[in-house]
Amino acid sequence: MPTVATTVQPPERTGDTGASEFTPLLRAVRDAGLLRRRRGHYAVSIAVNLLLLAAVWTAVVLAGGTGSWWVLALALPAAVLSARSGFVGHDAGHQQIAAGRRTNRAIALFHGNLLLGMGAAWWSDKHNRHHANPNHVGKDPDVEVGALVWTRAQAVERQGFARFLTRHQARLFFPMLLLEGLALKVASFRDLRRLDRAGRLVEGSLLVAHVAGYAALLLTALPLPQAVAFAALHHALFGLHLGCAFAPNHKGMEMPEEGARWGHLRRQVLTSRNVRGNPVVDFLLGGLNYQIEHHLFPSLPRPHLRLARPLVRAHCARIGVPYTETGLVDSYAQALGHMHAVGAPLR
């Protein structure tokens, strides 16, 4: 059964607003030492992930020599480890790993552009705009009209095949995530036009190197039908994994109206949902299940998010700001329920 969501919402509220609500929490997190870098943790995590990736791709080469279709089973660990690379790129984009922006950018380019074919510049631009105004239509690119829509106002404007998608978007959500791995690559290449010449050269060269290296590896190791099948399965599972990590975080939460003047704390807490963690959930969701803490402190190192949780939860209780947390299954149920409700006018 789905885990019931818990929302901390005491009856009493303080008169503090804006930055004054956030300042005491920032002080508490800083005093707890949670803002310090965790270079050792990231060094070990990155090294282990790269070694495991190397092992999986070595296994693909060795299995390819046998001609067995069982090689496709290796697409699953490849997808999981690819998602881990994506989480590292995400953390580097938020300046969580190193003290200097240049080092963080190098880590993001290596893990994003080269290993995944996912542009660091595209991701950072899109994701930073999301963090600045989460769930705010017209400001957050994650709630723009696309294959899916997030408000009834968006839904009633749909025509043709898009109208069909919106009508059934809750049912189609997980199947559509199977295309996300490929969509990320396409979006990254398209975004190159936005960059200056130097940015296009660096980002584009690494994206092309990824595609060329990925294709060369598979076509050298596997017969053409198996290479195509492996690439398709790998990208489908990778997209599904990433989509499942990001889907529970904001869908179905508050969506600020135009003109809303929320301070940083309310803007981030009211629009975000936590998923209760354990070692397995934390691993599979890349620590993003502590979404409230991540949005309040984007540069907070990933291993410190769960440590900040009790501080944030207690602070929200003191000032009367709802803190929403639920189980993994229920988080998907809430997100799908919101998508289903949005499409209701078309049914």
UniProtKB/TrEMBL annotation:
One BP annotation, GO: lipid biosynthetic process
EC nos: 1.14.19.3
Keywords: Membrane, Oxidoreductase, Transmembrane, Transmembrane helix
Gene Ontology CC: membrane
Transmembrane segments: 42-63, 69-87, 107-124, 172-189, 201-222
Family matches, as CDD domains: Delta6-FADS-like
Enzyme class: oxidoreductase
Signal peptide limits: none
InterPro entries for this protein: FA_desaturase_dom, Fatty_acid_desaturase
Protein name: Fatty acid desaturase
Organism ancestry: Bacteria, Bacillati, Actinomycetota, Actinomycetes, Kitasatosporales
